[in-house]
Design brief:
single chain, 379 residues, alpha+beta, Gyrase A, domain 2, Alpha-Beta Plaits, Elongation Factor Tu (Ef-tu), domain 3, six-stranded mixed β-sheet, 21 strands
Length: 379
């Protein structure tokens, strides 16, 4: 296929790697943060095995950055999130939630601190640039908020460390999980972090000049060939195994952190008056009516991930919905992230899921489904 064969119109942006991904076999795209993202390089199960056995390179330029700078940048960023950032060091990354006044989740990004008053918010799929600029208008804080020319790639899988070592030398091996550093590759300006959306060992490579997109992709692929590197896409199978959220599927503006079991990302005792603090305190005191759980769905292997929310019933009563479901070839089971009424959110509870093929039995289980302590990613 040619790059021009894909088209939703000029309002959907192409990444600096778009042409390269088509050359390397991308067969289909979806839209994320108003940009094309490759979602099909052939067999998704083979993409999964490439990821967990070797390494894949993914175009995730759709993870747009919101850059916040200025004398009050640190105060402003803390206002956006209920996670305590007071001990966040320069060079560190943190997984955070951005909440609204009702305690609803607007995004679950990675926050990077490049300097004392220089932050990037590396976004999931929602318009936080507009939210942050709107919040800033009447904040009284001195900040500048823009979308910089930054486009990430994800290099993920057990051999990603060897590929990074071949690209950058031995010093890259010192980069700790959820830390980042500014780097240069053949004159290409980059920032590299030990993060990713795969629950495997991995790195994100943030290109800081889109003119080098094609050159960077080809350079990484050429170096990685000896290690079995393949072009790929973020794996629904692996991220569901790892219990990783997909915004708009597993969480949205009506979901609060306590429903997801993400209490650790809410620090109500800090002095900062972050957006949603009173609401989150009230939710904590009153408790929640629903919770996210893992499900094993007892039916024939699913052909692909769900594309609609599936109802969950108990004794004829609707008690929740399946948000993300897929067949795991490694676990040889259909696994799902789901939101159910708290009365049924205990391990071992048996429920009924209404799949497109009809009602089927399912059982509530622990999540994540694989490597719950993320030893692979943090190794």
């Amino acid at each position: 296929m040619q790059a021009d064969d894909f088209g939703f119109g000029t309002q959907i942006r192409k990444s600096p790697y778009f042409d390269a991904t088509v050359r390397w076999g991308a067969q289909g795209f979806s839209v994320y943060n108003h940009m094309y993202i490759p979602r099909d390089f052939g067999d998704p199960e083979q993409n999964f095995w490439n990821l967990v056995n070797d390494a894949i390179l993914c175009d995730v330029a759709v993870e747009r950055q919101v850059e916040i700078t200025g004398p009050d940048a640190a105060r402003f960023v803390q206002m956006l999130t209920p996670r305590d950032l007071s001990q966040m060091a320069v060079g560190q990354c943190k997984y955070v939630l951005i909440t609204n006044a009702e305690g609803g989740i607007l995004n679950d990004p990675i926050l990077l601190r490049l300097a004392e008053n220089h932050f990037w918010i590396s976004l999931a799929d929602s318009d936080i640039l507009l939210w942050a600029q709107g919040v800033a208008v009447h904040s009284g804080l001195d900040v500048t908020i823009i979308e910089p020319d930054v486009s990430p790639l994800q290099l993920q899988g057990p051999k990603s460390g060897q590929i990074m070592q071949a690209l950058f030398g031995d010093s890259i091996l010192d980069l700790k999980y959820y830390w980042h550093r500014e780097m240069d590759l053949d004159g290409i300006p980059l920032l590299v972090s030990r993060t990713g959306w795969s629950s495997e060992l991995g790195y994100e490579i943030y290109l800081r000049d889109s003119a080098y997109g094609d050159a960077l992709w080809e350079r990484i692929m050429a170096t990685g060939m000896d290690y079995g590197l393949k072009p790929g896409h973020t794996s629904s199978i692996r991220r569901i195994e790892g219990g990783m959220l997909s915004y708009h599927a597993d969480a949205d503006i009506t979901t609060n952190p306590y429903e997801l079991g993400l209490d650790r990302l809410v620090n109500l005792d800090i002095e900062a008056d972050f957006i949603g603090k009173p609401a989150l305190r009230r939710i904590q005191e009153q408790g929640v009516s629903r919770m996210q759980v893992g499900l094993i769905i007892d039916c024939a292997p699913m052909k692909g991930p769900n594309t609609t929310f599936w109802a969950i019933n108990k004794d004829g009563t609707d008690i929740g919905k399946v948000t993300s479901a897929v067949y795991s070839p490694r676990l040889e089971r259909n696994i799902a992230l789901s939101m159910v009424a708290v009365a049924h959110a205990h391990i071992g509870a048996e429920v009924e899921v209404v799949t497109p093929s009809g009602p089927t039995r399912a059982t509530v289980v622990e999540r994540p489904f694989y490597d719950p302590r993320k030893k692979l990613a943090a190794a």
